[in-house]
Design goal:
The protein is α/β, with parallel strands linked by helices and about 350 residues long. The protein is built from 13 helices and 13 strands.
């Protein structure tokens, strides 16, 4: 008998950290033998950037109308094993729909930025309605918010088989918006005019950043995938003002690229100082600038050790092999809490609750 699918619900119109996580999760579940579907809560003007990647791995996806009644109807029709939401809007409407349709529900809380205006309101509603779901927080900082009894589970990425990067560029990868701090990245480039910097991404700050005309910064624009670019990057620089556990940091380290960052969200747990990267106090651009110069001056043998340490960190603590069993246990709890039968034998990986 065919098992009912695990449905991953996302409200999104662009590529980013949550979208990367959804792709990685869907792929890992599929490769582990679980039927899985990606549902986009609604379709915006263009096809979602994940479409081609999902087609490449033959992972089924569909768009919904953005109406709660339609989502409820689809859940009743499909009767999935469970619904797993990502992002505040998908979380709020997904919990309502799951409760009405009596579908087991799990929600992952990713965002380290509480937002402003309507986003702040959605974030608050997302937290308040979390009592309706089993919940996962990707960092201790997020777990300490008003989220109902969260399990603290890391994000994860797939580790590629090729050799680690040996590039030299210092990179920013992300949305060009205030919370991600691309303006601080440009300030760093001005501190180190002899070092090569690359800025990947687009967003509302793009034009104002380009007007600064920093000669040692290359604007690479929005790229479909970073996979072919990591080999040219030697160090990832995270200058965000808010973070959860950034997928880009995990992806970089999986490719052997060390990270220098402010100590935000789950980053202090990820980075072991001098072993796989460095952190510097929040807003300390002088300290970060000195670290960039220090890294650039290291002998190649030491850089190679750093690259290998990055990959080891991801394999042991942030890979699908390490993390997926913990997510599956939360799934099992959500299903059994509804009085339903879990379709496989118990998994033995222990769950970790915040504060445990």
């Amino acid at each position: 008998m065919t098992k009912p699918p695990i449905v991953i619900l996302l409200d999104s119109r662009q590529a980013g950290g949550i979208e990367t996580h959804v792709y990685q999760l869907g792929k890992a579940l599929k490769n582990s033998g679980w039927p899985v579907e990606i549902w986009f809560y609604q379709k915006y003007s263009n096809a979602h950037p994940l479409e081609e990647d999902l087609k490449d791995i033959n992972l089924h996806f569909r768009y919904h109308s953005g109406k709660l009644a339609h989502l409820i109807s689809e859940l009743k029709s499909v009767q999935p094993l469970l619904l797993h939401t990502h992002g505040y809007k998908a979380g709020i409407f997904g919990r309502l729909a799951a409760t009405i349709s009596k579908t087991p529900i799990v929600s992952t809380f990713h965002n380290g930025d509480p937002g402003e205006g309507i986003v702040r309101l959605y974030t608050l509603l997302d937290q308040l309605t979390s009592i309706m779901s089993e919940n996962i927080a990707v960092s201790d900082e997020i777990a300490k918010r008003h989220i109902h009894s969260p399990y603290r589970i890391n994000n994860f990425v797939e580790v590629p088989e090729h050799q680690p990067s040996s590039g030299k560029a210092i990179a920013f990868v992300g949305r060009l918006s205030y919370e991600k701090g691309p303006d601080l990245f440009l300030q760093l480039a001005k501190h180190q005019p002899l070092l090569p910097f690359r800025l990947y991404g687009s967003g509302p700050m793009e034009k104002s950043l380009q007007k600064q005309q920093v000669s040692n910064v290359m604007f690479m624009g929005q790229v479909q995938s970073m996979a072919s670019h990591w080999r040219e990057i030697g160090l990832l620089c995270i200058t965000s003002r808010f973070e959860g556990l950034p997928m880009v940091a995990l992806e970089a380290m999986a490719h052997g690229v060390p990270v220098v960052s402010f100590p935000l969200g789950g980053i202090p747990d990820l980075i072991v100082q001098g072993f796989n990267g460095w952190t510097t106090p929040m807003g300390d651009l002088n300290g970060m600038s000195n670290l960039l110069q220090f890294w650039f001056s290291l002998p190649e043998t030491v850089k190679w050790q750093l690259r290998e340490s990055c990959i080891t960190t991801i394999i042991n603590h942030y890979s699908n092999q390490a993390i997926l069993p913990k997510i599956i246990e939360v799934y099992q709890k959500a299903v059994q809490s509804k009085g339903l039968t879990w379709p496989e034998a118990d998994h033995k990986t222990p769950m970790i609750r915040s504060g445990a």
